[in-house]
UniProtKB/TrEMBL annotation:
Subcellular location: Cell membrane
Lineage of origin: Bacteria, Bacillati, Actinomycetota, Actinomycetes, Pseudonocardiales
TM stretches of this protein: 12-34, 67-89
Keyword annotations from UniProtKB, A to Z: Kinase, Membrane, Phosphoprotein, Transferase, Transmembrane, Transmembrane helix, Two-component regulatory system
Family matches, as CDD domains: HAMP, HisKA
Reactions catalysed, as given in the entry: ATP + protein L-histidine = ADP + protein N-phospho-L-histidine
SMART domains given in the database record: HAMP, HATPase_c, HisKA
InterPro entries: HAMP_dom (IPR003660), HATPase_C_sf (IPR036890), HATPase_dom (IPR003594), His_kinase_dom (IPR005467), HisK_dim/P_dom (IPR003661), HisK_dim/P_sf (IPR036097), Sig_transdc_His_kin-like_C (IPR004358), TCS_sensor_his_kinase (IPR050428)
Protein name stated in the entry: histidine kinase
Length: 381
């Protein structure tokens, strides 16, 4: 264990030390009592004559040495047994704490309202600890749910006025008597409206993904990726093997859509985008060189390499990807390519299938990526 001995080991050693200390004190008291009560040289009379019979002092010393030696051996054996018994007893006593720790460690932001410690049985300090943690989880779940509801409600309410504004701008730009200055202003407002709409839709998807999948069912990830790539158009190299995963089809489609759009949007002119499915989802492009120190922060909200131009997105693409992956109990790995661009790997729980031809194929490793991956950590990890 890092940082020294575990509590179980320390308690067991403490029991052994206390037993050894108490046994040593008991041995000294026993030694003094035996030494005091051993017979001394005696005198007695036979037919009027007095004889002095002196006990052999070597016998006395031998008795005391034997007492000390055998007592120390017995004491050391008893101390070892005390440590062993202490290990068993402390292991039994600390087992509920390990269970509480493992349960608390497995909790995420998407299941705070579904999993609790709920320790039953005799009321003691451990039960009180479990109840305290459950109360804290209740408060955290309420706070998370309130934040998600607020983001979802605000995003939903803002979509209607934005759609109305866009319609009015398009109608105004369609008039034949619009001036050049008014047309330029309208086009800028329309661009800003599209960017704001993307931001609102991204926040709405982020709120939904934070809430967790509404359903978990088998989804053919290869079919979903192929549909998204076909709709995106452009020069995208696609390799898709049969790969059923377990999750929510709507959220997974947003995940794939954000990955593909992010790779296309941040690609360099004349570059390439490569997508591979089986058993994991790999997406890489040949965009600009990404500094290693910025890779881990790309999944944070509104973090972008360049902020010039409204066609570069709103900085929520990889954030949404990370949130959807975390909601599905998957893993996300982002690493920079030596020649520029990113390589993103998403591993999702595979759905069980009886047809071997539809199971996920063997892993595929991008030959163009040689640097170690930087695994991103999402908000509930």
């Amino acid at each position: 264990m890092r940082g020294g001995w575990s509590i179980r080991t320390r308690l067991s050693v403490l029991i052994g030390v206390l037993f050894l200390t108490g046994g040593t004190v008991l041995l000294l008291v026993t030694y003094l009592l035996v030494r005091t009560n051993l017979p001394s040289p005696v005198e007695f009379s036979v037919r009027g004559d007095t004889f002095r019979i002196t006990e052999d002092h070597r016998y006395r010393d031998e008795v005391l040495r034997t007492l000390i030696a055998q007592s120390w051996v017995a004491l050391l054996v008893a101390a070892v047994l005390a440590v062993a018994i202490g290990l068993v007893v402390t292991d039994r006593m600390l087992r509920p704490i390990r269970w509480i720790t493992a349960t608390a460690r497995s909790l995420g932001a998407d299941d705070l309202d579904r999993r609790r410690l709920a320790r039953t049985g005799r009321r003691d300090e451990l039960t009180e600890l479990a109840d305290t943690i459950d109360g804290m989880l209740d408060r955290l779940a309420d706070a998370f749910e309130g934040r998600r509801r607020f983001a979802a409600d605000v995003s939903h309410e803002l979509r209607t006025p934005l759609a109305t504004q866009r319609t009015l701008i398009e109608v105004a730009l369609g008039r034949p008597d619009v001036s050049a200055d008014t047309g330029e202003l309208g086009r800028r407002l329309l661009t800003l409206n599209v960017r704001t709409t993307r931001l609102i839709e991204g926040l709405l998807v982020l709120a939904l993904s934070d809430r967790g999948p509404a359903t978990r069912e088998p989804v053919r990830l290869d079919h979903l990726v192929r549909r998204v790539v076909d709709a995106a158009g452009g020069d995208i190299a696609l390799e898709a093997d049969p790969c059923p995963v377990l999750g929510d089809a709507v959220l997974l489609e947003h995940l794939v859509l954000n990955l593909v759009q992010n790779a296309v949007r941040h690609n360099e002119p004349g570059g390439r985008v490569r997508v591979r499915v089986g058993p994991d989802l790999w997406v890489e492009n040949t965009g600009p060189v990404v500094p290693e120190e910025l890779v881990a922060s790309l999944t944070e909200p509104f973090r972008r390499m360049d902020r010039a131009g409204s066609d570069r997105g709103v900085g929520l693409g990889l954030t949404i990807v990370a949130s959807v992956v975390a909601a599905h109990r998957g893993t996300l790995s982002v690493r920079a390519r030596p020649g520029g661009g990113l390589s993103v790997r998403v591993a999702l729980p595979h759905a069980p299938t009886e047809d071997a031809s539809e199971s996920c194929s063997q892993a595929w490793v991008s030959p163009s990526v040689t640097v170690p991956p930087v695994t991103t950590r999402t908000r509930d990890q």
